[in-house]
Amino acid sequence: MKIIMNEACAKENLGEVMLLGTTIRHPYNEATREYDETVIDSISVNLACTGLDNSITVQLEEKEHPNVKTWGKVRIAGLVYSPSATANSFEDRGTGKSRSYGTINDRFTAVRIEPLTQADRKADENGQVVSPTTTAAEPNSNKDKK
Prior knowledge:
Elements: E1 3-5, H1 7-14, E2 17-25, E3 28-29, E4 34-35, E5 42-49, E6 54-60, E7 74-77, E8 79-81, E9 84-91, E10 98-105, E11 108-110, E12 112-115, H2 140-145
Parallel strand pairs: 6-11
Antiparallel strand pairs: 1-8, 2-5, 3-4, 5-6, 7-12, 8-11, 9-10
């Protein structure tokens, strides 16, 4: 089952969403026993959700590093929720009886994540890293007069 979550549905169910971290996986070459850092195999992001009081892991379809600061608020484009259920059983060593239990596994996929505001971006359009303490620079002539 797949549930496509538009922006309003995601906002209602997840609440405010912030980036906690990013995991980038690179393909492993068994011949050289090294990871190929130039190629991105997959990207998953951990997102804090105020509506869930928990975090979720989202697998991204676009294989580009998201331009979002850690703890930056994000907008999720193309979010899909596809839960799955698994059943497990084991034999209780004390009584010898068979016990069973089930779990629901949450799986989220998205096309990409985007910064909600300009302040949540990690870098600008030119690739320059945006500093959190960036302010309007004073001209050098004003510094000399002080």
